[in-house]
Amino acid sequence: MKSILLSVAFLFLGLQINAQLQSPEEFLGYEIGEQFSRHADVVNYFKHVAENSPLVNYHTYGKTNERRPLTYAVISSEKNLKNLDEIRNAHLGNTRISDTETEADKAIVWLSYNVHGNEASSTEAAMKTLYELITEKQDWLENTVVIIDPNVNPDGRDRYVNWYNQVKAEPYSPLQAAAEHHEPWPGGRPNHYLFDLNRDWAWATQVETQQRLKIYNQWMPHIHVDFHEQGINEPYYFAPAAEPFHEIITPFQREFQTEIGKNHAEYFDKEGWLFFTKERFDLLYPSYGDTYPTYMGAIGMTYEQAGHGRAGLGINTDEGYELTLKDRVAHHHTTGLSTVEVASRNTETLNTEFKKYFDNSELEYKSYALKGNPDKIASLKELLDKHEIKYQKAASGRVNGFNYTEGKEDRFNTDENTLVINTNQPKGKMVNVLFEPTTTLTDSLTYDITAWSLPYAYGLEAVAITREVSSLEKSGTPEINNTANPSGAGYVAKWNALQDAQFLAELLNENIKVRFTEIPFKSEGKDFDRGSLIITKSDNRTKENFDKTVVGIANKHQRNLVAATTSFAGSGPDFGSPEVKLINPPKVAVLKGEDTSSLNYGEVWYFFEQDLNYPVTSINTDYFTNVDLAQFDILIMPEGNYADTLDEDTLQQVKDWVSNGGKLIAIGSAAKTFAGKDDFALKENKSEAMDSTATGNLIPYAQREREAAKDMITGSIIKTKLDNTHPMAFGYGDTYLSLKLSSDSYKLLDKGFNVSYVQQPEIVAGFAGSSAIKDLENSLIFGEERMGSGSIIYMVDNPLFRAFWENGKLFFANSVFFVNNNKFSL
């Protein structure tokens, strides 16, 4: 009798809780699709559901740069939620991350919404999907755990939503010409630092990604879906994906994508909704929200709804119908539920095949061994730690493998400072993808870059080895603890990594005067190369606590200081030599706004604020002509088209500023602004094209994309020669592997300095079309042109791309602090 009463009591309590549960429409006060919901409203709704449903747990996993919460909900049956840790550990047992003996019998589905802030329909769909799962689809939750991240990019979403809510007409206008369909720069797509979070999964440079990966690593789902939007005239895209597929992807992963796609198709056909599959969105580049989970064993998929930031609440398409937000929400809602349905039907198969994925015995390369600059090794370890990828120190000896530097099989000496990453670990296939020397391409037409191997990106010597290399347990790096030497002449520090630039930046921020040498020298019996920092007591004699401050900053950054007892060098220049330059703490400006690439501006902004922690002033292009450039030492032009910003008069103002000692840094396509102009040495480098006027265009229509690929470079790695006696290349050797993102090519400077350049192109990895390669002969990568007492620095390749090409960042720091930096301003 007592048990019956308890059961009745629990049933009554459940009815009470469900009675308090509100639908999104009831909670928000409007029907989903009638308005765009602000992030705070979405968070409040998810909180409400979690408080009023025993089927939902809701958590905060971090904050954005603008302090908005990052959240996720876990949805399953009441019984499953009570045993969630056991379910999760059993699931991780299939990956070998957990050593539990409990057999996994649940499907794990992760749905990620709104990674691009202005693709805003998906967050609205997330609320609707959450409500329907717990009110109408409880049967699926008996054997399925669903994780919903309702807004991966809250800062970007609110940028878009707040703008749209401010400008939309009442009622909204569906006319394409209406202001509400034309977002201002930079748009809501990126995050606070204007990074594309859908390209950041593997590189994990952004706080959103870093915090999300901690939770993702705890779950490692069977299925991960990334919800997106595309152009207004393209109906809906879902899996299966397009070629090329990375060769690591299993037949099951391909087949199950198709099974899910067919299930979606049934619903779409029933409603008369158009869709397409197998086109455009491939599975190659590892840093997407579909590929990264795929390489972690999941069925990773992108769903793309027509709309994007242009669509607003409704827009007239070119095909004669109105696309509404309600339509877009309905489509994303349908595919989200359809995905959970297929997972619930195939729980046993998902677990069986997921377990098979983590058998890495068939991988060609069993180990990757890397050595080089300790700071670069340390940076790579930080990245591996974010992904919970294991690494060790190599045992001393000699191994044979594919040598990345030589591009062939070769011997490689290992020692206790060599890092080894074996593929015999749970995430071995991801290790393979991130470290493989070259990626096999089944199709040259891809959606993103085609080369990214981490040894190249970090500038390290490496070999890929077909056997497992013996290793030692990893151990911490000994802590550096410099001590002050008040009786000496000063301190000397090396210069060959970004960490050295961070050290310099903080010294300058603390008003410590620093010199650098343009010629190698010896002090206290130690050799110091070009670029080494010299911090003298003489330069800082008015600085209180000089020694304590310098040593404290060096210890904070873990930089080794050599305390120099005298400024008299053992060889090379003394500290007072004209070849030892005093660094001018530069006042830096960067252009932003219309005409600039928001992504590249964001990369520059991020570099100064997060990598260097050095002040930078952003100047908008719409008032640039009214800015007095004399207050700045450096002006950075991110990638962009500056035809409108730099008219004839404004260009003359810039030339005058440079001639008077200013330093202009032009990145990527910004260099075109100066190519071929009077008084500038930069000229485009294009081979003579065949005159088609006599023969006409005989390329078949169906082959137009393939033919165009001859002129394309899709993120390939090219070997360049370096003049490492030039300050821009201090800290580098005589070659540099550059990530080339376009086929833009410029002739070698006939006046100025060709610092990084190509003579005969050597593509190390990735795709480059035959015509594009030919155009790279005798071409500039990085160079300096002197104009009066100032300089123009051309960076044809972007060394800050997505903040992941670590080996390029020192070029940028050198350009800021060293190049043509001969004057000192107060």
Class derived from helix and strand content: alpha+beta
Helix tally equals: 23
- The total strand number stands at 35
Number of domains: 4
CATH topology of the largest domain: Aminopeptidase
Rg (C-alpha, Å): 29 Å
Biggest sheet features: 10 strands, mixed
Mean pLDDT: 93
How much strand content do the residues show? Answer: 15-25%
Low-confidence runs: 1-17
The CATH superfamily of the largest domain is identified as Zn peptidases
The CATH architecture name of the largest domain reads 3-Layer(aba) Sandwich
Helical residues, percent:
25-40%
Specify the overall morphology: globular
Q: How far apart are the first and last residues' alpha carbons, in Å?
A: 88 Å
CATH class of the largest domain equals: Alpha Beta
Structure description:
The protein is α+β, with helices and mostly antiparallel strands. The protein has four domains: 9-357, Aminopeptidase; 367-472, no CATH class; 490-582, Alpha-Beta Plaits (2-Layer Sandwich), CATH 3.30.70; 588-682 and 706-817, Class I glutamine amidotransferase (GATase) domain (Rossmann fold), CATH 3.40.50. Helix content is 31%, strand content 20%. The protein has 23 helices and 35 strands. The strands form seven sheets. Strands 26, 27, 28, 29, 30, 31, 32, 33, 34 and 35 form a ten-stranded mixed β-sheet that branches. A seven-stranded mixed β-sheet has the order 1-2-4-3-5-9-6, with helices on both faces. Helix 20 (648-659) links the parallel strand 28 (634-637) and strand 29. The radius of gyration is 29 Å and the shape is globular.
